[in-house]
Design brief:
Layout lengths: L2 H24 L15 E4 L2 E4 L4 E7 L2 E6 L5 H10 L6 E3 L4 E4 L5 H38 L5 H34 L2
Antiparallel strand pairs: 1-2, 3-4, 4-6, 5-6
Helix pairs in contact: 1-3, 1-4, 3-4
Length: 186
């Protein structure tokens, strides 16, 4: 294992940590309709838990409405039950062929709660990135201890890992600030 290989593998892992954060944020309801709100909901499809987007077409015709059109009309009640059971706090309304979800305006209290969740998830991502930094530094120190690389190469490798960590922490902060701004918009 070389310093470059350690750097590359840890950069990939940091990228994944950032992507996980983005996906988490996409499923947070910020008063705006987005199909990603329904990503975590599964429906009982002939005895198999199936993601909702695999049993219905999801569209956003208006900024505050999601429309689901099940591929089988028999799935409407199962989809409605799954949405009601979810922690989204949305009430589906159906006309027999499509299900409409109206996204209510967020209250000040709910916005404050969501901002706390956004900060918590960002901190979890920062901790993950810092843990990756520690793992990379440990791997580099082990190379030095095993006399595979010199002390100078160890120092440079650790500096590069630190710069990479700083870059991803800054990106996490940017993503967090954007989500916070989206939530606080009235």
């Amino acid at each position: 294992m070389t310093v470059k290989a350690i750097f590359a593998s840890h950069e990939d892992k940091m990228k994944k940590a950032l992507e996980v954060l983005r996906k988490e944020y996409a499923s947070l309801r910020a008063g705006r309709a987005t199909p990603a709100l329904l990503d975590k909901i599964t429906v009982d499809y002939y005895g198999t838990p199936t993601p909702i987007n695999q049993v219905a077409n999801i569209s956003v015709p208006e900024p505050r409405m999601i429309v689901l059109q099940p591929w089988e009309k028999s799935m409407i009640s199962a989809i409605e039950k799954a949405i009601l059971k979810s922690d989204l706090g949305l009430t589906p309304s159906s006309d027999g062929s499509v299900i409409r979800l109206t996204i209510p305006q967020l209250t000040k209290e709910r916005r404050a709660e969501l901002v706390k969740v956004v900060h918590k998830k960002a901190e979890e991502s920062r901790v993950a990135v810092r843990n990756l930094r520690r793992d990379a530094n440990d791997a580099i120190k082990k190379l030095e201890k095993d006399k595979v690389i010199s002390e100078d190469e160890t120092k440079k490798g650790q500096d590069d890992i630190q710069k990479l960590t700083d870059k991803y922490i800054k990106e996490i902060d940017t993503v967090m600030a954007a989500k916070e701004k989206e939530i606080m918009e009235v």
